[in-house]
Structures are given as structure tokens and as C-alpha cells.
Amino acid sequence: MIKAQNVVKKYNSQEVLKGVSLDINDGEFVVILGASGSGKSTLLSLLSGLEKADSGLIECNGVRLDNLKDDELTKFRKEQVGFIFQQYFLLSHLNVDDNVKLGANLAANKDYGQIIEAVGLKDKMKSKPSQLSGGEQQRVCIARALAKNPKILFLDEPTGALDEKTGREVLDYIVNLQRQKGFTMVMVTHNANIADMAEKVVKMNSGEIVEVYNNDAQKSAYEIGW
User: Which are the contacts of 174, defined by CB distance < 8 A and separation ≥ 6?
Assistant: First the structure.
């Protein structure tokens, strides 16, 4: 369970989040939807422990993030959280296997090869990032995040830099793996079509949550508009 109550965040005295409250259930796939500047990425950073709120309560899997010191937040992220961003953040001098191993080592996971195979990169394990397409690099990021065996996966515009074909493939990989493994998944996007894939949709505007609803039927990555 992730719980946020009356969360406020300011940058240079500008209030970016204005008393946001939200509950996310264990194993749920949630999309946070909004235009640029709506506060969605800031909310993701606070829920995941990347940043601290100025006020309000944030609880994640029974841990009060707003009470933790910086080193305790680092420990929390290391042990419980996986991240996938629009930027790939791969180490260019390491091949696919070694990049994914960086995540696996954080969880002492020796079976990470299964995850590389699951995202369709078994034949690319010795390739460097420069030898991969954009979609393949994003799949390396997915594998690295999942190799940590995270309890919660946070994603910030994971398909923002991808073309439609690759974007659909990446979303299909992520959602199928989430269903298989049962972890909680929170995705930020400005693409309203992706919201049709989620169990719960949170709409934001000007630093506030303006609507929360559940989808009765979730569409696949190949059924949504683009």
C-alpha cells in the first residue's frame, strides 16, 4: 500500500503539489496522467523516495518516507523500488548482461538471466548500448529494474522517446511482467491512451489531483490508440 495525505512540495517558493492525497493498493497498476507542469513527475519522485515532501504524510509498504533520513531513503529505494525513466541511463562501456547485473547485484539475484530472456534480449546479452536500438535499450532498463525484484516499479514517461511500434512492444513487456510477478506499478505519462491499460487512473492538473477512476476492463498495448 502506498498512501499520500495532504502532500505539499515547493520549488523556489512555488507550490508544485498542493495538498495531494492518494491511495495505491498492493499489486495495482496505476497511471498518473497530466500535461507538462501538472505535478505528476514530482508526485512520482515523492512517492518513490527520490525527493522529500515539504509537508504531509507519505507511507510506502508500511514505511513513513517523510520521517526518513537521506541514508534511510537510499536504503529504502535500494531494497524495495525499481525505476524506469524516459532516459535510458545505461553504462555505455558495459554490455547488456553487465548493465542488468547492476540491478541484480542489489538484490543478490543470480537468476536475472531469466528476466533478460523475458524481455526478448537473450541474443543481445554481449551487445553494448551503442549496438542496440532505442527499444532494445529501454528493455535493458526494464530488465535492470526488474532484476532488483522490486516490490514497487515506478515509471516516468517510459515510452516518451520511442516510436509507436517500439512503444507498444515496451508497454506490452512491462505489463505482462507486472501481471506475472504481481508487483505494484506506478506510471507517469501525458499519453491519455496509455491510461486505458491501467487498473486505476489519477488525473492531475496544476499540482492537484482532479479525478481518480478505475477501468472496468484494461486494454492491451496493442488495443489502445497512440
Answer: 84, 142, 153, 155, 158, 185
